[in-house]
Specification:
The structure is a single chain. This protein is mainly α. The protein is about 55% helix and about 5% strand. The protein contains seven helices and eight strands, in the order H-H-H-H-H-H-H-E-E-E-E-E-E-E-E. Helix 2 runs antiparallel to helix 3. The longest helix is centred in the middle third of the chain and has 34 residues. The N and C termini lie far apart (about 65 Å).
Length: about 240
């Protein structure tokens, strides 16, 4: 005979919907997305986060291995996200290769974007160094600053947001939010040379527009008042130039 508590839990699965995801494909897990972000961080900032010494002689082989790991994971997780969206829209994609082709295409485009992403993040790190008199080096910014960590994850997530990948961009920024205290929606439009000083308590909403060479301090909310569902797609957050 089943434990009464187990029976009660199983009964709730039948009676309470919405928060169940049964008889469906696996969703992209937070753990897997975290793994992607960790490996990307090593690719973007070689030598900063590895546990073993990285040398020029083994750089190519190690980088290729890490990129392959990211490619394989991204294709799987994007595919799951795209298929989930199809089902939300009552579409049957099981007999089509369109979702997998979309996942492959977006993954390839992201890998091609990494060199440009590194330049953007170098400029952000330099802006943070110049903007914080307590910082001793750009290396210190990259290794320790939660604001810069949040910017890094935002720029990755924003790429996938612009490609209209469901779920994954928000998982990425919420991982960063939980680790840094900085809450940046992946849909925010943030310009070059972005600096976050301290960072705790910063909130940047989805339709926020932040221009180039902007510095934010802790406790700043670039947010919006409550809006009706019919106006949710309208711009509802401030613009900072």
């Amino acid at each position: 005979m089943k434990n009464k508590n187990i029976e009660a839990i199983l009964k709730s699965y039948k009676e309470i919907g919405v928060i169940n995801h049964l008889e469906g494909d696996n969703l992209p897990s937070r753990k897997s997305i975290h793994q992607i972000l960790d490996t990307l961080r090593e690719i973007i900032f070689p030598g900063f986060f590895e546990t073993t010494k990285l040398e020029s002689s083994n750089l190519a082989a190690i980088t290729e291995k890490k990129v392959d790991e990211v490619i394989n994971l991204l294709k799987i997780k994007i595919f799951k996200s795209v298929c989930w969206e199809c089902k939300q829209n009552k579409e049957d994609c099981s007999k089509s290769t369109a979702c997998q082709e979309k996942a492959n295409k977006i993954t390839d485009e992201f890998i091609s974007y990494i060199p440009a992403l590194r330049k953007e993040l170098k400029d952000d790190a330099t802006a943070n160094f110049k903007g914080d008199p307590a910082a001793k080096s750009v290396s210190e910014i990259i290794l320790t600053y939660p604001g810069f960590q949040a910017i890094t994850v935002y720029r990755v997530a924003n790429f996938f947001y612009k490609k209209q990948v469901p779920l994954i961009p928000r998982i990425m920024t919420e991982i960063s939010h939980s680790e840094t205290g900085v809450d940046i929606h992946p849909g925010a439009n943030i310009g070059k040379n972005f600096c976050i000083d301290h960072g705790t308590g910063i909130v940047i909403g989805e339709t926020s527009v932040i221009g180039n060479n902007v510095k934010l301090y802790q406790g700043v909310t670039i947010g919006a008042v409550s809006v009706k569902n019919k106006t949710v797609n309208a711009k509802r957050h401030p613009t900072i130039n």
